Amino acid sequence: RNFLMAAVVSSATSMTTSPLRANSIHWFRKGLRLHDNPGLVEALRYAKEGKPGSAPGKLYPVYILDGDSFQLRHCTALRANFVVECLADLDASLRSLGSRLYVARGDPVAVLPE
């Protein structure tokens, strides 16, 4: 957990003049948590270490409301409210580490390249 916090802070505050950066996206889908999240740890590692010839980059935590992410059309109001509260908690946790959660709406195929 301490590694994760340090990596988020380091990724959020890294500055470089190099044009080639190892930016990384972590797409939150079902695991809306910071702890016990191997995909997030790997995205942080990539952003921090980069690849040969690149400078450290930034991590962009993303959640996309695509209608199927939690079956928006078929879920109850309580379930939808629960997901919204989880997203707010995740954003608050990321902000406490100097980052934030980027929330978008639409088809992930169209949204992620933006």
Question: According to CATH, what is the class?
Answer: Alpha Beta
Number of strands: 3
Order of helices and strands, N to C? HEHEHEH
End-to-end Cα distance: 30 Å
The proportion of residues in beta strands is: 15-25%
CATH fold topology? Rossmann fold
Q: State the shape.
A: globular
Strand order of the largest sheet: 1-2-3
SSE inventory with pairings:
Layout: H1 2-13, E1 21-28, H2 38-49, E2 55-65, H3 77-96, E3 102-105, H4 108-111
Q: Overview of this structure, please?
A:
This protein is of the alpha/beta class and 114 residues long. The protein has one domain (2-111): Rossmann fold, CATH 3.40.50. Helices cover 42% and strands 20% of the residues. It has a 3-stranded parallel β-sheet with strand order 1-2-3, covered by helices on one side. Strand 1 (21-28), helix 2 (38-49) and strand 2 (55-65) form a beta-alpha-beta unit. The chain is globular and about 50 Å long. It starts with a helix and ends with a helix. Mean pLDDT is 80; it is low at 1-7 and 13-18. One of its GO terms (cellular component) is cytoplasm. Pfam families: DNA_photolyase. GO terms for molecular function: deoxyribodipyrimidine photo-lyase activity; DNA binding; FAD binding.
Protein traits:
single chain; about 110 residues; alpha/beta; Rossmann fold; 3 strands
Q: Summary?
A:
By secondary structure, the protein is an alpha/beta fold. 42% of the residues lie in helices and 20% in strands. α1 (2-13) packs across α2.
